[in-house]
Inverse folding.
């Protein structure tokens, strides 16, 4: 059944950024989200830092196990792909922990070249690598003690959502696919946010090509995407996503491994990529969650329309929420987690 749902509920009364965690330093695992685990307690959700190899790179990840986890049993599992510029200790970790609290084994990993994972040049952000990271998470979690390899789902958040659409087109180990506040990185890098920079595509491709040429000649890798996190600079940003994202990543949920920077030469790959190309190949249950007020909503709507191979699909709108607010506002997170739990419980049974 195909449906679009925008539940009629009261919007969150919370505004601003009060009540958010401001430092990773107090948490033994560097977690910066509200309600993060501070110690592993018997009978509760536990966190397990792990690492594994993927194409010669060391991937840094966290596994969350449900309360009273017994590896002699078989549990459904969910891998979680983090946003662009994000790391496993932020929103991806929050949703991984909350889903573990509802009975799933979950895995969140830093992308190759980013966070605590290895790979050089640092901050390389190429779609092929991000997609391979998601395949690699499936490789790892399917072999984790206690996991039922026949019941694996995937959740992608923001940029990780777009890459999840792409990974799930071919990776049929995922029996259910969900995204939260999905962001189609290729479309935005190519056309600009809300398609605002289409007239500069060729100039930006030329600049990216020049950056790669310089790297080939031995020049330092050129990074773009640097942010000024001063209040004055944030106030001048043109979109809710950018303003609220700067607050989230630069202040309230800052983590030293998280950065907006990426190599300019990556744009040669990013700008010729679109997460919705061949999205019709996804033929398993598909859930797209987005904020009803999100200025990024158009990307989930576009993907929903193009996902013609998924006969069981739903676009679920969180009333009153913007893109970044789905990362941390308790009311919105609760709503998203409830929907995700119902979805994965049913589709991974």
């Amino acid at each position: 059944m195909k449906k679009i749902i925008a539940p009629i509920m009261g919007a969150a009364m919370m505004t601003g950024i009060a009540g958010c965690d401001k430092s990773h330093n107090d948490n033994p695992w560097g977690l910066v989200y509200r309600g993060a685990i501070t110690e592993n307690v018997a009978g509760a959700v536990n966190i397990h830092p792990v690492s594994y190899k993927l194409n010669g790179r060391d991937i840094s990840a966290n596994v969350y196990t449900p309360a009273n986890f017994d590896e002699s049993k078989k549990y459904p599992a969910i891998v979680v792909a983090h946003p662009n510029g994000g790391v496993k200790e932020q929103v991806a970790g929050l949703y991984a922990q909350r889903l573990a609290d509802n009975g799933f084994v979950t895995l969140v990993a830093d992308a190759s070249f980013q966070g605590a994972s290895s790979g050089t040049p640092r901050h390389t952000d190429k779609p092929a690598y991000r997609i391979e990271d998601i395949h690699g998470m499936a490789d790892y979690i399917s072999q984790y003690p206690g996991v039922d390899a026949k019941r694996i789902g995937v959740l992608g958040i923001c940029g990780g959502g777009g890459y999840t659409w792409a990974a799930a087109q071919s990776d049929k180990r995922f029996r259910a696919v969900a995204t939260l506040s999905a962001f189609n990185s290729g479309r935005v890098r190519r056309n600009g946010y809300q398609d605002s920079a289409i007239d500069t595509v060729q100039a930006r491709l030329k600049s990216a090509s020049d950056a790669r040429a310089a790297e080939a000649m031995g020049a330092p890798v050129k990074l773009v995407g640097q942010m000024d996190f001063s209040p004055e600079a944030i106030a001048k940003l043109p979109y809710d996503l950018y303003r609220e994202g700067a607050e989230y990543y630069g202040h309230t949920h800052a983590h030293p491994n998280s950065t907006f920077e990426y190599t300019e030469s990556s744009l040669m790959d990013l700008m010729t990529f679109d997460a919705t190309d061949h999205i019709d190949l996804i033929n398993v249950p598909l859930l797209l969650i987005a904020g009803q007020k999100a200025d990024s909503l158009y990307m989930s709507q576009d993907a929903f329309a193009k996902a013609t191979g998924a006969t069981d699909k739903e676009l679920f709108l969180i009333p009153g929420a913007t893109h970044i607010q789905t990362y941390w506002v308790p009311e919105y997170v609760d709503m998203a987690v409830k929907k995700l739990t119902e979805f994965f419980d049913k589709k991974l049974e």
Summary: Residues 1-24 have pLDDT under 50 and may be disordered.
